[in-house]
Amino acid sequence: MTNARAPLAAVAVVGAGPIAYVAALVTAKAVPTARITIVRPPADPAALADRFPTTLPGSSGWLADAGLDEAHLVADGVATHRVGIRFAEWGEDARDWTFAHGSDVALPLPGALPLLWLAHGRDVALRYEDVRPAAALAAADRFAAPLADRRSLLDCVDAGLRLDAARLLPLLDRRARAAGIAVRESDVVATQRSGDGGLASITLANGTTIAADLFVDATGPRALLAATKGETAADWCGCDRLLIAERPGDPAPADAIRAVGIGWRGDRPLADRITIRLAYAADTADEAQARRLLDAGDAEAVALPPPRHRPPFAAKVLALGEAGTAIDPLGDFGFALAERQLALFAELLPSRDRDPLLAAEYNRRAGLAADRIGTVVASLHAVRPRRRGPFWRARTGAVPAALDAFAERGVLPQHDDQSVTDADWRAALLGLGIVPRQHDAVARSADPARVRALIADLAAAVAALPATLPPYPALLADPRTRV
Amino acid sequence: MIFEAGLGGEMGEARQRVRVVIVGGGTAGWMTAAALAALIPGAAEVHLVESDAIGIVGVGEATLPALRAFIARLGIDEAAFMAATSATYKLGIAFEDFGRPGDRYLHPFGQFGAPFAGVAFHHYWLRRHAAGAALPIGAYSTAVAAAEADRFALPGSDDDPIASYGYAYHFDATLFAPFLRDFALAHGARRSEGRVVEVTRDPASGDVRGLVLDDGREVSGDLFVDCSGFRALLIDAMRGAAWQDWSRWLPCDRAVALSCAPPPGAVAPYTRAIAMPAGWRWRIPLRQRVGNGYVYSSTHCDDARAADALLAAIEGQPLAEPRLLRFTAGRRTAGWVGNVVAIGLSSGFLEPLESTSLYLVQAAITQLIERFPDSRPAAADRAAFNAAIDAEYDRVRDFLILHYHATTRADSAFWNDVRTMAVPDSLRDRIALWRRTAQVPAYGHGLFLEPSWVAVLLGQGIVPDGWDTRADLPEPASLDRAMAAFRRAVEQRVAAMPDHRAALNRGRAAA
Questions:
Q1: Residue among B436, B450, B475 with most chain A CBs within 10 A, to mutate
Q2: CA B388 to chain centroid
Q3: Distance between CA B508 and CA B139 in Å, rounded?
Q4: In which element (H, E) is residue A171 found?
Q5: Which fold has domain B18-61+172-247+330-395?
Q6: Order of strands, edge to edge, in the sheet holding B208-213?
Q7: How much is the pTM?
């Protein structure tokens, strides 16, 4: 007896950016016998997940599938580490705080550190990030590879990768061609559906038709292969304009985002330059105002179409990036969602046959990932600096229900997807200044003097940590960090 | 309401503790008392009311690996616990005659084989099984192989698929509650002996204010935990705590239980669940006795026939008269309503087919501690508690129904009924997905994860006709070599283990 499921024989991936290449390479690895074609229409300037690819810790299994590794990418200036994001004048009281990737330090006491800190430690360490090693590094623009040693504070530091799309694309193109993937530069001018509504083939500008068992739509907001318009995204802060520019600057392991009256301004440092962006809404500011605030001469202006969510996998089309789920641009989490959904695709791996229950299971889990990441980003927006200006006053973005639970006692509701970990999210909510109304019972039962002493020691050690590490550019230049 | 008093002080100031009254001194009651007294002494004042006149059900003799975390979190020494409760080790459950008469499989605590190239082992196994080239899947599980050999050793590193199985215990449930009672009392819990004759409630909110005991004493509190078993003394009258009946899927509603003298020879490190004409029977090996019981559907079998069938099946001299237990499968719509939290049988019942009852108690305790009121029980906390516990019950429910439904048995009215019944949509879709693709929906939370579903689905004869297409990529010969090498490593690991009785004696020496 043989397998009743036949492997995918032909896969067509449509998209101009890294997501399309990564999807093709992941598929080639999982189905080496498949005929895979990448069709590259002109890039959509609003395809932000493709333009500012940033990974989350532990999310980049595709690197190996693509024959890439983190150390090489960093050494070649394609990737830099992102340990966190420094937010300035953000939150209800326009505070400065740091979002960072890492676990909570474990004290030799029952109870989680954030809850112990809330119950007893707030007069010893003023901010939770004062006892969070990753936040200290992000605040000081320092980084060191996570150390798997429980005695070291670096054991509690993690990082994603900021990828430089301009440098990554040629690399991915070479890998794709080497893997036997055909790459066609063409728009898609027509789509043909079969009787059951599934996409059967696509027609390119020169009239060529490509039939496939599975299509990947990575065309950004245009969603060229989508059968439906999709639903308007509710977890969106409301920026519909983006100015994008570049300036010279040193690499750094933290992004910097500052609330301004008409929206926010963000710095995304790459290996050899810094991408700067200003996000605003056309109904509360005009482009001239935005250009003055960005102060960067020849910035590119991008209008973002109304954000939409479409089914992640339907009618034989796997929709990745904004073609599937639009993620608010704050913090560049869009690529990470595409990565996560691709990992789920590779885990469940559809076959050539119709597997509606498998598609339903993919959609369930892909939806959980979208919900998780969308909710985390929405919560960064939900605590808003109203006094900062018209943009912030005008918007009353939906407050995720999870924030209510958190505001009660600092505990997040259970979520089956941990694309953003509970530890990172909880630290962010504490960073935003949410003080839960009740304290954790285990933490309350700890000896307050002991907790305070341990937290004071920890805060001192965390404060001293950045100075023990070289500046980030020196770390990147150190041949010992190269392979 | 007392919750409002004494609070609002500055951080670190002494706060008034919440007065917790636990009704019922069975396993659930004393597990709750022990955990609250040991883990949140600064937040809870624990007072347990029990009556010696009311016996405990005490048939929860088989446990799941999660119980180890409970014991460890309380700081209880494992050897001391095992000695006090006459515990033995448990590596899984053997199911006999479920899929069809004569079938037998083990549901182990642990995975089968090791994943390769990101694909779970069972996909490769299915390919070689279809070609007639694989041993039964249990051959690729250290827990199964050790159980079959009546051997036991503690597991090793989680990174080693040969060494990373789980284990649990069989123990004497009538000794566990007293063991925890001593522990709880030593950690500051208070105990009152007496029968609850009256419950006083706030007329407006329905919240419980206090209890009146049979000798006239009054017990007041802020938060009441109903561990009164099926009587559900407190929760049953709460608004919104209605019972959801699941007996259309889980028709067994009685059990007859009986201990017998242990047969000579090895002590099995696993529970046995043996299908019977109107249900199934358990066999749980303890150190000095063997626990037995027949779980049956009263519409398909009367009590006398069930008792006779059990007596005919046991292997040793009966140590007491058979005891009859009645129950209904289901759960409360909400386990935490107002200031009453139901834990244990008052909150729901799922038959012991997969030894889940103490796990469900433990899950409720963990959630209660996480959501334990500081100033007042908040609606968000109740909602989160209820959502988490509902998810636990619902996922276990589907897993249990699978054991009955996935069968070819047509030898009794009971098996005909369960084989042909309509199952919940969630389970129907799971089975269909499995048949087609060999995939099991993954959850980040919940009790039974992929290896458990694989064990029972395959064990009960549902062999998928399709699997992950990547499993077809390796050369058959290299796949066979890898599987044979894994099997050898399992055999070597098991050969180096002491037999179960020797392992128990070693543990006793350590205690």
A1: B436
A2: 16
A3: 30
A4: helix A165-178
A5: FAD/NAD(P)-binding domain (3.50.50)
A6: B196-201, B208-213, B218-220
A7: 0.94
